[in-house]
C-alpha cells in the first residue's frame, strides 16, 4: 500500500453498482475509499470522485471525519452522476499546547494548503517568465533552509538537474542533503552571491530571507547573483510588506517595521545590478487560526521579531494581543507575500 500522507490529490471513477458490483454494496465501498483517501492524502490535499447515488453517495464519502466536503457537481448524463470534491483536514492537535509549535515551519498556523498555494504561484511565475525546457534549467534556492520548498519546486517544474540549496544553518543543510533533488551547502545569502560561479543558474529563488541581509550589502547581493545567472534567467525574491498584517503587540510591530525594508529597496537593487523587467506581484491568502495557537507561537518566538523580548515583555505582549478576546476565539488576517521578479538580459 501507499505510505501515509504521500499524495496531494486522489482521483477516482468509482463503481456505480450497475455494470460492476451491486448498488447496496456501494455505500460500504465509498466509505472505505474515503478512509483510504484520507490516509494517503497530506493535509490540504484534495480527493475528487466521480460517483452515482445522489445524496447517499455524498453522505458515504463525507462520513470520514478527516475529509471535509468542498463541492458536489451534478453532471447531465443518462443516469444521476456527481463529481464530489473533498479536502483532507489537518490532524487534530491541542491548540493550547506550546510544545507542539513547529519553530521555523509555518505549518503551525498556515498549514499545508498555504504552502501548496505559494509553491504553485512560484512555479506559475517561473513558467510564465522562462521559455526554456525543464530539463535544461538549473535552480538555486538562496536561504532554502531544509530544502523542502526547493525540492517541491523541483518536482512541480519537472527539473532534471538537481537544484542548488544554500543556508547558514548547518542542521538544516544536513537535512537538505538527504533530498535526492538537491545539492546543498552551508552559506548565507551574501556568501552565496560571492561564490563567483558565472553563468550557472537559470532560476534563482530568494524566499523570505532578503530582509536579513544588511542594508549595505543588498546591492552586492544582487550584483553577485546577476553574475551567476545565465542570459535570460529569472530571479525571484519573495518577501513581506513593511506594515505587517498580523495580530502583533505594538512593540513587536515596531520591531517588524524597523527590520523589514520596503520592497522598493529590492526593486532598485535589482535594477542597479543590471536586471530588466523588474516586476512586483502581491500574493494574498486568508488565514484563520485559534487565538490560543497564535499566542503559543508568539511565546515560542517562532519569528525573529520576538527574539529580542524578555519573557516578561513577551508575556505582556501576549496579554495585549489577547485583550478582550476568549482563548477559543479565532484570529483572522490575510497573509501577504510580495514577489519581485526580474530577468537577466539576453546579450
Describe this structure as you would to a colleague.
The protein has 347 residues and is of the alpha/beta class. Helix content is 35%, strand content 28%. The chain has helices spanning 23-40, 54-61, 111-129, 148-157, 170-177, 189-193, 218-228, 250-259, 263-273, 291-299, 311-322; strands spanning 7-13, 41-52, 67-75, 81-88, 139-142, 163-167, 182-186, 201-207, 229-239, 276-290, 330-343. The strands form 2 sheets. Strands 7-6-5-8-9-11-10 form a 7-stranded mixed sheet. The protein has a 4-stranded mixed sheet with strand order 1-2-4-3. A hairpin with a 5-residue loop joins strand 3 (67-75) and strand 4. Helix 1 (23-40) runs parallel beside helix 2 (54-61) and helix 10 packs antiparallel against helix 11 (311-322). The protein is globular, with a radius of gyration of 23 Å.
Q: In angstroms, what separates the terminal alpha carbons? A: 52 Å
Main sheet, how many strands, which sense, barrel? 7 strands, mixed
Gyration radius (Cα, Å) is 23 Å
Sheet with most strands: strand arrangement: 7-6-5-8-9-11-10
Runs in which pLDDT lies below 50 for 5 or more consecutive residues are 93-108
Helix content: 25-40%
Large-scale geometry:
globular
Number of strands: 11
**How much strand?**
25-35%
Task: Sketch the topology as an H/E string, one letter per element.
Answer: EHEHEEHEHEHEHEHEHHEHHE
Content-based structural category: alpha/beta
Mean pLDDT: 86
Give the count of helical stretches: 11
Amino acid at each position: 500500500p501507499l505510505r501515509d500522507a504521500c499524495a496531494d490529490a486522489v482521483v477516482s471513477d468509482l463503481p456505480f453498482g450497475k455494470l460492476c458490483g451491486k448498488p447496496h454494496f456501494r455505500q460500504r465501498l465509498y466509505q472505505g475509499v474515503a478512509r483510504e483517501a484520507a490516509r494517503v492524502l497530506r493535509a490540504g490535499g484534495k480527493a475528487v470522485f466521480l460517483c452515482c447515488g445522489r445524496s447517499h453517495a455524498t453522505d458515504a464519502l463525507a462520513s470520514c471525519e478527516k475529509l471535509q466536503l468542498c463541492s458536489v457537481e451534478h453532471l447531465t448524463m443518462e443516469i444521476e452522476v456527481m463529481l464530489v470534491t473533498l479536502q483532507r483536514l489537518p490532524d487534530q492537535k491541542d491548540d493550547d499546547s506550546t510544545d507542539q509549535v513547529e519553530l521555523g515551519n509555518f505549518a503551525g498556523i498556515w498549514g499545508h494548503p498555504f504552502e501548496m498555494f505559494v509553491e504553485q504561484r512560484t512555479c506559475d511565475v517561473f513558467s510564465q517568465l522562462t521559455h526554456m525546457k525543464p530539463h535544461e534549467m538549473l535552480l538555486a534556492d538562496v536561504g532554502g533552509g531544509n530544502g523542502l520548498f526547493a525540492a517541491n519546486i523541483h518536482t512541480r517544474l519537472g527539473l532534471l538537474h538537481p537544484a542548488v540549496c544554500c543556508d547558514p544553518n548547518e542542521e538544516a543543510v544536513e537535512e537538505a542533503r538527504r533530498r535526492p533533488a538537491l545539492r546543498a551547502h552551508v552559506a548565507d545569502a551574501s556568501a552565496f552571491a560571492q561564490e563567483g560561479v558565472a553563468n550557472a543558474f537559470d532560476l534563482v529563488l530568494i524566499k523570505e530571507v532578503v530582509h536579513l541581509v544588511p542594508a549595505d550589502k543588498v546591492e552586492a547581493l544582487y550584483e553577485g547573483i546577476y553574475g551567476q545567472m545565465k542570459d535570460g534567467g529569472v530571479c525571484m525574491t519573495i518577501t513581506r510588506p513593511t506594515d505587517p498584517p498580523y495580530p502583533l503587540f505594538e512593540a513587536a510591530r515596531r520591531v517588524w517595521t524597523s527590520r523589514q525594508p520596503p520592497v522598493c529597496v529590492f526593486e532598485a537593487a535589482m535594477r542597479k545590478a543590471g536586471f530588466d523587467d523588474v516586476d512586483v506581484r502581491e500574493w494574498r491568502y486568508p488565514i484563520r487560526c485559534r487565538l490560543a495557537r497564535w499566542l503559543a507561537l508568539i511565546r515560542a518566538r517562532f519569528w525573529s521579531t520576538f527574539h529580542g523580548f524578555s519573557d516578561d515583555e513577551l508575556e505582556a505582549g501576549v496579554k495585549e494581543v489577547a485583550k478582550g478576546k476568549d482563548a477559543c476565539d479565532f484570529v483572522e488576517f490575510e497573509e501577504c507575500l510580495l514577489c519581485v521578479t526580474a530577468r537577466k538580459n539576453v546579450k
